[in-house]
Amino acid sequence: MSAALSRPSAVLFDWDNTLVDSWAVIHAALNETFTAMDHPNWTRAETEARVRGSLRDTFPGMFGARWQDAEKTFYDAFGRLHLENLTPLPGAAELLRQLAEAGAYLGVVSNKRGHFLRLEAEHLGWDRYFNQLAGAGDAARDKPCREHVDLALGLGSGKAGPAAGPDVWFVGDADIDIVCARNAGCRAILVRAQPPTEEEMAVAAPDLHFPDLSALAEHLRRL
């Protein structure tokens, strides 16, 4: 991992479990879906280990010809649960405020459906911080594909930020976020309590790792 980087001109964030704690809602909605589809339920640990891609990329392989029925069941359950259980992660609001006041371009690249992503950002009052919120289905292809990053940077939207490159930091909690950053040529920043595993490092090592958002905020203040 790189020891130091220059201050970013733009910061893109994953959403779920990077800025907000979503595991409980995702887990509950998935198990409602599994029950309806006669699939065995997952444990919470299995959910956290397996959920990475968007539904349009993962459900066809999981449910075959019935994947659209499963998708409807999942989103019906998620829509009932997500706002009342939405929990910002410690330090998230402060970090977004710090970056916005410093004039950084801010965006989100999330494999949560764009409609739900924007509802959640508005519910938290964070929509004012972001130049662009790009959720699943908003771009031609979802994370980890380059198109999703380009959309979050405003390409073709009239809200253009800097082009994807080393001056753009991509902040996330999972291996898919690091891969996405690499696919777009951005700096990959891992934020979670656990350091990257050997398996993750072999696929795509992050440039920097922080145990939490407050540590990332302090690092940025020092740059």
TrEMBL record:
A Pfam cross-reference name: HAD_2
Pathway recorded for this protein: Organic acid metabolism; glycolate biosynthesis; glycolate from 2-phosphoglycolate: step 1/1
EC number of the protein: 3.1.3.18
Gene3D superfamilies: 1.10.150.730, HAD superfamily/HAD-like (3.40.50.1000)
Annotated signal peptide: none
Any one GO MF annotation of this record: hydrolase activity
Keywords: Hydrolase
Catalytic activity as recorded in UniProt: 2-phosphoglycolate + H2O = glycolate + phosphate
PANTHER family (alphabetical): PHOSPHOGLYCOLATE PHOSPHATASE
Family: Belongs to the HAD-like hydrolase superfamily. CbbY/CbbZ/Gph/YieH family.
Name used for this protein in its record: phosphoglycolate phosphatase
Species name: Dongia sedimenti
